[in-house]
Design goal:
4% strand, single chain, disordered N terminus
Length: 302
């Protein structure tokens, strides 16, 4: 008996140790699962928690181009790289703004501005090719992008699964008609327009977007660059006009930072690209102006 007992005890210790290991493993699994839960645990964010915000994908432009003249290759390659940068930036913004804005936030603040940037970039590619060869037509059709997978149910509206989520407390969905003048992120504080400093619609007046004048800050423009500089200066004005039109057409949409996120921010990005092209154009035959990007940021004046 004195020898049988140690063997029995060893088996018992092994069984108990195995049970403890199984219990610990189960605890790790449970804790790991709980780590992915939001504090609120709401069903409205289930898709986002399960799959993330999704990924923005865009049609490939390079594969749709005709033969590129040697004289245009550098410019085309630069703009093709810019297209990829724009997609990467949009995906980063998608990740960083989960839960913000209303049901159309992704479409208004990310996909829409991305399309505008891509239209400009694709047009520059076509123009570059067209200087010494047949200009490709119809490339604008490649500009719109889509949101695939993740928490959004449909690319058309960008963020249909976002109704009532963490960034939209007290908002039953599209808050355009609940008396809150578009203050979707105001935690159900209907009728309180004072807390939406970024949304001109809440103040009862749309306001106007104004931007620093670029033309007056330029050095002497070489004759060979004048046409391109003039074209980009005109584009700067077009961008401001489009932003003001969008400002009027989106009164009452989004949360307290809607105007900054969906209009002023994207406008600054467009202006930076356009101003860079102006500086590069002047720099080809003269001294490239420095520091023009400080003129890119615009403001909302009421």
């Amino acid at each position: 008996m004195s020898r049988a007992l140690p063997k029995y005890n060893k088996r018992r210790v092994a069984i108990i140790g195995g049970a403890v290991a199984v219990a610990l493993t189960g605890a790790v699994v449970v804790n790991t699962a709980l780590a992915g839960e939001s504090k609120g645990g709401g069903a409205t964010n289930a898709q986002t928690l399960a799959a993330g915000p999704g990924t923005i994908t865009c049609p490939d432009v390079a594969s749709q181009l005709p033969a590129i003249p040697a004289s245009a290759k550098a410019e085309v390659d630069r703009n093709l790289a810019l297209l990829q940068t724009q997609i990467s930036e949009a995906n980063t913004r998608l990740q960083n703004t989960v839960g913000q804005g209303g049901p159309n936030f992704v479409q208004n603040a990310i996909l829409g501005p991305l399309k505008d940037k891509r239209v400009s970039t694709v047009n520059r590619i076509a123009t570059a090719i067209g200087r010494t060869a047949a200009k490709p037509a119809g490339l604008d059709a490649l500009a719109p992008c889509a949101l695939n997978g993740g928490g959004a149910a449909a690319p058309a509206t960008g963020n249909n699964g976002n109704n009532g989520n963490a960034g939209n407390n007290g908002n039953a969905g599209n808050n355009a008609n609940n008396g809150n003048n578009g203050n979707a992120g105001n935690q159900g504080n209907n009728g309180n327009g004072n807390n939406n400093a970024g949304n001109a619609g809440n103040a009862g007046a749309v306001g106007t977007i104004t931007c620093p004048d670029v033309a007056s800050q330029l050095p002497a423009v070489p004759a060979t660059a004048k046409a391109e500089v003039d074209r980009n200066l005109a584009l700067l004005q077009t961008q401001i006009n489009e932003a003001n039109t969008r400002l009027k057409n989106t009164v009452g949409q989004g949360g307290p930072n809607f105007v900054q996120n969906a209009i002023l921010g994207p406008l600054q990005g467009k202006r930076e690209s356009t101003i860079d092209r102006i500086a590069i154009s002047i720099g080809r035959k003269g001294t490239k102006p420095q520091g023009l990007n400080v003129l890119a940021a615009c403001t909302l004046n009421k």
